[in-house]
Request: fold
Amino acid sequence: MHHSARTAHRSPVRAARRLAVVVPLVCALAALVSCTKQEEALTTPCGVVVDGSGSAAAVKQGFDSEEKLKHSLVEFLTDQKCGTVDFAPITRSSRSSSCRQDQVDLDPPHDANTDQKVQRADARRAAALAALAELKCARTQNGSDVWGALARIGETVPDDGGTPKLLVVSDFDQSDPEFVLSRQDLSTEAERAKVIDSLVRKRGLPGIKGMEVFPVGLGMQYSAKPSEADDFQAFWVEVLEGRAKAHVDNQYKR
Reply:
């Protein structure tokens, strides 16, 4: 009887000890569950245009598109909450160029146990590699058909997930077998309008209405010629905002 009483007396103690062990475990499991809380979906459709022309080389008179791409792309994809990214090259004939990279899904399918931060970081690295591959290919088709590249990315980027965002890594120095911008008179608004009218008649407008365009390197070749730089930038702002009805944002301009 004495033994049974002692056993009965200890049972509540053992139960309390077991509870003391179980409660922290439950709390730890709850913490783990909270760590796997799903991130807000990334839905912004994005596009990247890369310049493979001679002026984009890593030389003194160039603006080094590879360096600018490496320094702006991941920041752009992260800032703009890009869910997908498509690519287009700037070559001598951008719309028909064989340089083509597949769309990268920046918010891949996942389950409750997926570490989305790691998964998304891996996807952005894959996008960076694809952009560099696009640039490498574009450099084999030398030329600078910026107009055609804008048209191509406008046709490629989906428009069903919010306002599309376009990162354009180029000095925008349009130069292809049929048209060289540096030979045109851009000194007045009227002269710039004549040049734009001519291009629109021959090539149509890039289908980028409503999209946000983030230029990187626009007009860098005129860094020592401020007046020409102003005319050159005014030309492209009129093309992009005035005619194509896109919006220009210089957040990543370097």
